Amino acid sequence: MQNILKIDSTDTLIVALKDLKKGEKVSWDDEEYVLKTDVKAKHKFATREIPVGGVVSLYGVPVGKAIKAIAQGAAVTVDNIKHFAAPVSLDDSESYQWDVPDVSEWKDATFKGIIRGDGRVGTANYWLVFPLVFCENRNVQKVTDALNEALGYADNGLKDFAHQLAASSGERQASVRPFPHLDGVRCFTVTSGCGGATSDSMTMCDVLAAYADHPNVAGVTVFALGCEKARIVDFKAALKKRNPDFSKEIIYFRQQDWDSEEKMMRDALKATYGAIQKTPVAERVDVPLSHLKLGVKCGASDGFSGISANPAMGLVSDWLVALGGASGLAEFPELCGAEGDIVKRCMTRELKEKFLSLMKHYEHVANFFDTSISDNPSPGNIADGLITDAIKSAGAAKKGGRAPVSAVCDYAEPMAESGLSLVCTPGNDVLAVTGLVAAGCNAVIFSTGLGTPTGNPIVPVLKISTNSAIAKRLVDMIDYDCGPIIDGTPLPIISRGLFKTLIEAASGSYKVKADRLEQSDFMLWKRSLDL
């Protein structure tokens, strides 16, 4: 196994693939370096003397500027470099040329999808329950739990174990599912809808409308209180804007119209059960891979993210786009420092301007709170080698592959039907995945170097590891290991296995670990500051 990696021949930083000691000699392409400091695995050291103000580079791009002189062979840290990225220009006259990958081996490949009446394709089939205001969170959860228990979707492992301990009567008989075509009843709760900015309540309606309209959803039950800002009429308006031809079964319950909560809850259960009974049977059928809409995400990242899992995910994204499918690249703070490359890949000047405008607004809001969009790396990121946001972003952007950008979407706007879309979200794991699904993704690949259980209520989230150690330690969270790339396994081999696993997850033949853990995360991005 190699002990160091120089990613681009022009880089002034080299990545340590294992812990290196001060005084140790390492070499790359006939260049020998004597380490002036210890360099932990995933961290970087300088290939030459860097003066104060000097720029350091990784992935072939600037990723930092020295705030102290750095000796050749010394590790870069938060104490000797700060975030720096090259200026971005809109006036680049060169059109972007994409070397479209050969996807002939998947030309006739399919996945088992669920075709809706309007032709859109889902990768799952759920009845969805949600509130329009936080006051109804309890009712939403109670109805969902009761239905899942009655219909056989509840995970009764702990209940069965408790019954065995209490009664020593053996295993309980598994519940029979009366609706085998339904994958379950899913819900999520909210923390807004009232008491905050009206704009946040309206954005919430837009996101809820996107989830209700999602092809992975068979029908919806909605709870309201009656005095909230996010009223039923506002949700209906958002739904009409999202899809004027929306035709799924949708049931509303407004609690202030009832004189008995118990009666309302019983009627809600009865109405939802009846609606599920009437919902057309949705069988999985073979559909082309062009019907996949992939969301790409990284979280709890480490210094290997940009050289293993993210490039593997980027290759899968490119293959899917080449096959006529769609991919969404989110997390705008993790494009901070990679803007120059992203702008070059935008197909029109309008797309370039929209992307930079959204980035500028994000920075403007961050500045209001006396911070910056570049303050993105978490303590865990920094401890594992992502010292500046530009270092993190240059690696994070790899998950979007090299396809040209065909659309730029603000939060809750629908992504393009094909090609690579930029989806404006924060870097926060759950906020970003929530936004990707609202944009229309019907599958998500999520890379992690440190581990995270993040999932989604209606879309499979495939968790991939950047290193094999985390895949072994967190086996209940990680679906696919990209760590062998670090050990020398060629990127295309690992990417092919990842693509195969993605197709299996989209087909329902592989249940992602997040769903096995019942990790159904949902969180809204509040953007009430209007500057």
Structure characterization notes:
By secondary structure, the chain is of the alpha/beta class. The protein is 31% helix and 18% strand. It has 14 helices and 22 strands. The protein has helices at 137-151, 157-167, 198-213, 232-242, 261-278, 309-322, 339-345, 349-368, 379-383, 389-396, 429-439, 468-473, 491-507, 513-516; strands at residues 4-5, 13-16, 25-28, 31-34, 44-46, 55-58, 61-66, 81-82, 110-115, 121-122, 126-131, 184-187, 217-224, 249-254, 285-288, 293-298, 326-329, 405-409, 419-423, 443-448, 461-465, 480-481. The strands form 6 sheets. Strands 18-19-17-16-20-21-22 form a 7-stranded parallel sheet, with helices on both faces. A 4-stranded parallel sheet has the order 12-11-13-14, sandwiched between helices. A 3-stranded antiparallel sheet has the order 1-2-5, with no helix packed on it. The longest helix has 20 residues, at 349-368. The protein is globular.
